[in-house]
From TrEMBL:
This protein's UniProt keywords: Heme, Iron, Membrane, Metal-binding, Transmembrane, Transmembrane helix
Any one GO MF annotation of this record: metal ion binding
Organism superkingdom: Bacteria
PANTHER family, sorted: CYTOCHROME C1, CYTOCHROME C1, HEME PROTEIN, MITOCHONDRIAL
Protein name: Cytochrome c1
Positions that bind heme c: C75, C78, H79, M207
Gene Ontology cellular component list: membrane
Cofactors: heme c
Biological source species: uncultured Sphingomonas sp
Cytochrome c domain sequence ranges: 62-242
Length: 307
């Protein structure tokens, strides 16, 4: 009886699931979701190549140094790198005296405590410090940016779909809002204080165009600092901040793959050498085996049992 009741309860549950599914499908077909400006005018990141792309990619230290210079002179006023230390710059080819000078001359000082009074204070950075945030807290950051919170850039290349291509596209994607968009979606007109960028998810963001003119940064290596070049360089630099051990990880991965490949080949050859010619011997056992039948007959004879 319990099984019958359980069967009908389960049948009713499955029936309700199917009814709900088909009702929702019918409602979706009858009342499809309205098109939005974001859905129609949002663009995927541009096709752009970086030296670190692909399984054989590697960091170009000259490009990373140029990207760090763009970050320092353009981005650092609003965006922090709180997961990166000054001494990590050694991986980009900077010497120890250069790193000490960069930390000492950094425009934003590191939070500290006055040893005499115990009150909050600031001090110059040292190589062991992480890059300080330009704002003391989130409230101050929002107050200085029309209630928008500038994200920390340490992991931005991993936190955004498209990675470096998204960063590059965003930096080079600012433009006037298309008239077609305003005509079709009047409510989606870019509000005052925001800037239209089709590569941003909701098309409008609070950050003004950070790279506006050629020569905004003067590269130490003499590279022509076009807007496109600066955007590529800082995007490559942010890939490094998000994955500073990328090359080491790939090198270790290739070593493991080669080791496993060699181990597989050696194992197969050992199998062929040792076991391939060995014949598997199967011995028939059971009550019908001749030896078992002889023992059974002997036991019967001992007990005087016929047959």
């Amino acid at each position: 009886m319990v099984r019958i009741i359980g069967f009908f309860v389960g049948l009713a549950f499955v029936g309700m699931v199917f009814i709900s599914f088909f009702v929702n499908i019918a409602d979706y077909v009858a009342n499809p979701p309205e098109e939005t400006a974001e859905h129609e005018f949002h663009k995927h990141p541009k096709e752009v190549h970086f030296a670190s792309d692909g399984p054989f990619g590697h960091f170009d230290n000259q490009q990373l140094q140029r990207g760090f210079q763009v970050y320092k002179e353009v981005c650092a006023a609003c965006h922090g790198l709180t997961l990166v230390s000054f001494r990590d710059l050694a991986a980009l080819g900077y010497e120890e005296p250069e790193i000490k000078a960069i930390a000492d001359q950094w425009a934003i000082q590191v939070p500290s405590v006055n040893a005499d009074t115990g009150e909050a204070a600031t001090r110059k950075a040292i190589p062991a410090d992480r890059f300080p945030s330009p704002y003391p807290n989130e409230v101050a950051a929002r107050a200085a940016n029309n209630n928008a919170l500038p994200p920390d850039l340490s992991l931005i290349a991993k936190a955004r779909e498209g990675g470096a291509a998204y960063t590059y596209s965003l930096l080079t994607g600012y433009q006037r809002q298309p008239a077609e968009l305003v005509h079709k979606f009047p409510a989606a007109k870019t509000p005052q204080g925001l800037y239209y960028n089709p590569y941003f998810p909701n098309l409008n963001l609070a950050m003004p165009p950070p790279l506006t003119a050629e020569g905004q940064v003067t590269y130490a290596d003499g590279t022509r600092a076009s807007v496109d070049q600066m955007a590529k360089d800082v995007s490559a630099f942010l890939v490094w901040t998000a994955e500073p051990k990328l090359q080491n990880r790939r090198t270790a991965g290739f070593a493991v793959v080669i080791f496993l490949l060699i181990g597989t080949i050696l194992g197969y050859l050992a199998y062929r050498q040792i076991w391939a010619e060995a014949k598997r011997k199967v011995r028939v056992t059971g009550p019908l085996e001749a030896e078992s039948q002889a023992k059974a007959q002997a036991a019967k004879d001992d007990q005087g049992v016929a047959g």
